[in-house]
């Protein structure tokens, strides 16, 4: 039985969040499991709801728990569940379709009109202590995939779905517009599918620097020139001949979408994943004359989560590289601010029952290969960073195993866990000033509403209304870094899923 906290991070209305202790959910059917949420990533859509209170026709009318990129540990199983047991570590697929409509029965449950998707009004999200879900939407993580990686399976599954929609095959060239988390993951999946040239395009050089160490073979800084000229530049840069076999828009920006159609080769494929303005000027003649196959891509469907997990388990995609930091649950609001400011690629929030966040992050960090970062890591300032001198030890037990014990679920390998505990204590004492962190946690448990309503947030709201796509129409070479407010969440500016 679940005995921990069910503290939840609740959005009341735009710029108004609070921590609320909610009742622990109970299984609604014997095919469900109850999961203690260990880690949750922040998606641009979460930030968009926090800032604007709506995305398209999804409007936050009642307080809603945020978050949908999560992994957790099974604490209870319904009597009809055969595939999971208490103690299993799982990635949570956060949208539950009706299973009966034509789309569900036709194998496209992501298009179910009755979809109940976490943190999409009116449905609560996963930034909570416990989450109940149908067992078949909880994917057991292999031993070599950590719970922190598990939280990144959701955005990776978005990338898998996009690349599947594009039907990328070995030897192909792929251009991905946008180097936010979705674009980066699309590029990485395209490489894993055998694409030999993967060109990442963005308007921020730092993001491209990161992309080159992640999935991209080439990077192009989009200029303030016509979409046709940007397309010619991309083709020339990567020696794409008559154009790219596949183009993917993961920016939602109008000039980028236009450049997609000019970059793709005759008979190539174009997939729209980014969601910006509802209506744009689109080069329809080029699409028609080139006989381009155009597809949309929405969330993920059959087999996408499974494949995403396999790609991580097989070492094909190192999702840990995307993580700039892990913060305790009490610092959720601050984490949202960092994402909004474009200061991080991904930040993970530990569940309220997660006790050892600092050492968990330290452990994960030591396994990371240092790559150029698009942004300043914030974790050192927030939770303390582990010394990077230590070599990663592959045989070391995963820190997540400790969490199982903390949640009274299942005994981890006792010997290994003990060693880790001792190590974690040392790290805390020497490197992370545990007392300071504790004090911060206590403070953060009482969120101050007035702090949220900063001028910065208000300004952001106003600016977000002005689509940045206009900028690319100015006929000038673009060299300067865009302002912070043009970054991360702006891609969601015109709407999302
Ligand atoms: N289809 C889906 O199921 C799905 C799921 C999740 C997110 N999304 C959408 O995908 C998009 C990307 O998501 P994200 O989380 O990576 O967002 P993000 O905002 O972090 O990334 C968007 C990137 O596009 C870049 N960009 C902006 N204008 C550009 C231009 N003219 N040319 C090239 N790059 C440009 C930005 O600098 C940014 O790096 C968003 O529009 C989001 O709403 C779609
Ligand atoms: O990753 C999937 C998307 O972020 C979701 O559709 C989100 O927008 C909530 O509806």
Characterize the structure shown:
- With 497 residues, the protein is α/β, with parallel strands linked by helices.
- It is built from 18 helices and 20 strands.
- It has helices at residues 44-52, 102-105, 147-151, 153-166, 181-192, 205-212, 227-237, 254-263, 284-289, 304-313, 332-340, 357-366, 379-383, 400-406, 414-432, 434-444, 449-452, 455-465; strands at 7-13, 16-21, 32-41, 54-55, 58-59, 64-65, 69-77, 89-92, 95-96, 116-117, 130-134, 138-140, 173-177, 197-202, 218-221, 244-249, 264-272, 293-296, 323-327, 346-350.
- Strands 3, 7, 8, 11, 12, 19 and 20 form a 7-stranded mixed sheet that branches.
- Helix 1 packs across helix 11, helix 4 crosses helix 10 and helix 7 packs across helix 8 (254-263).
- Mean pLDDT is 80; it is low at 359-497.
- The protein binds nicotinamide-adenine-dinucleotide and L-arabinitol.
Beta-strand share of residues: 15-25%
Ligands (ions, cofactors included): nicotinamide-adenine-dinucleotide, L-arabinitol
Strand runs, count: 20
Tell me the distance between the termini.
35 Å
| Low-confidence parts | 359-497
Radius of gyration: 22 Å
Count of individual helical segments: 18
Helix content: 25-40%
How would you characterize the largest beta sheet? Answer: 7 strands, mixed
Overall mean pLDDT = 80
Question: Which of globular, elongated, flat, extended, rod-shaped describes the shape?
Answer: globular
Structural class call reads alpha/beta
Write the layout of secondary structure elements.
Blueprint: E1 7-13, E2 16-21, E3 32-41, H1 44-52, E4 54-55, E5 58-59, E6 64-65, E7 69-77, E8 89-92, E9 95-96, H2 102-105, E10 116-117, E11 130-134, E12 138-140, H3 147-151, H4 153-166, E13 173-177, H5 181-192, E14 197-202, H6 205-212, E15 218-221, H7 227-237, E16 244-249, H8 254-263, E17 264-272, H9 284-289, E18 293-296, H10 304-313, E19 323-327, H11 332-340, E20 346-350, H12 357-366, H13 379-383, H14 400-406, H15 414-432, H16 434-444, H17 449-452, H18 455-465
Parallel strand pairs: 13-14, 13-16, 14-15, 16-17, 17-18, 19-20
Antiparallel strand pairs: 1-2, 1-6, 3-7, 3-11, 3-20, 4-5, 7-8, 8-12, 9-10
The chain binds nicotinamide-adenine-dinucleotide and L-arabinitol.
L-arabinitol binds at residues 43, 45, 117, 120, 154, 158, 299, 496-497.
């Amino acid at each position: 039985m679940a005995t921990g906290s069910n503290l939840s991070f609740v959005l009341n209305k735009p710029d108004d969040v609070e921590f609320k202790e909610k009742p622990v959910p109970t299984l609604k059917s014997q095919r469900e499991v109850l999961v203690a949420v260990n880690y949750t990533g922040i998606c641009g859509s979460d930030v968009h709801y926090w800032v604007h209170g709506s995305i398209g026709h999804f409007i936050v009318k009642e307080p809603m728990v945020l978050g949908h990129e999560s992994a957790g540990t099974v604490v209870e199983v319904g009597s009809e569940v055969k595939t999971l047991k208490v103690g299993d570590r799982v990635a949570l697929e956060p949208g539950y379709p009706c299973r009966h409509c034509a789309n569900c029965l036709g194998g496209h449950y992501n298009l179910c009109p009755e979809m109940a998707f976490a943190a999409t009004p009116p449905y609560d999200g996963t930034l909570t202590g416990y989450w109940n879900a149908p067992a078949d939407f909880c994917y057991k993580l292999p031993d070599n995939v950590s719970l922190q990686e598990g939280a990144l399976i959701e955005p990776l599954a978005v990338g898998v779905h996009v690349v599947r929609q594009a039907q990328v095959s070995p030897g192909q060239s792929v251009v991905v517009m946008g180097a936010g988390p979705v674009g980066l993951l699309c590029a990485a999946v395209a490489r894993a599918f055998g694409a030999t040239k993967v060109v990442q395009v963005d308007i921020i050089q730092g993001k491209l620097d990161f992309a080159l160490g992640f999935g991209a073979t080439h990077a192009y800084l989009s200029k303030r020139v016509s979409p046709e000229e940007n397309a010619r530049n991309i083709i020339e840069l990567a020696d794409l001949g008559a154009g790219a076999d596949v183009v993917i828009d993961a920016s939602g920006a109008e000039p980028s979408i236009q450049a997609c159609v000019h970059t793709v080769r005759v008979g190539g494929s174009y997939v729209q994943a980014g969601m910006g303005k509802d209506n744009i000027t689109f080069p329809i003649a080029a699409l028609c004359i080139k006989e381009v196959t155009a597809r949309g891509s929405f969330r993920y469907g059959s087999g996408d989560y499974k494949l995403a997990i396999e790609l991580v388990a097989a070492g094909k995609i190192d999702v840990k590289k995307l993580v700039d930091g892990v913060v305790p649950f009490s610092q959720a609001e601050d984490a949202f601010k960092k994402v909004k400011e474009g200061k991080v690629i991904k930040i993970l929030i530990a569940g309220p029952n997660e006790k050892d966040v600092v050492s968990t992050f330290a452990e994960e960090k030591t396994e990371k290969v240092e790559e150029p970062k698009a942004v300043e890591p914030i974790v050192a300032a927030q939770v303390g960073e582990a010394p990077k001198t230590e070599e990663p030890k592959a045989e070391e037990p995963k820190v997540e195993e400790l969490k199982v014990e903390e949640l009274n679920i299942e005994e981890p390998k006792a010997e290994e866990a003990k060693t880790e505990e001792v190590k974690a204590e040392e790290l805390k004492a020497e490197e992370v000033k545990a007392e300071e962190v504790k004090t911060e946690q206590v403070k953060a448990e009482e969120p101050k509403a007035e702090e949220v309503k900063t001028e910065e947030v208000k300004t952001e709201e106003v600016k977000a209304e002005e689509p940045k796509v206009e900028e690319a129409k100015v006929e000038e070479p673009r060299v300067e870094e865009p302002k912070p407010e043009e970054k991360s969440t702006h891609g969601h500016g015109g709407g999302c899923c």
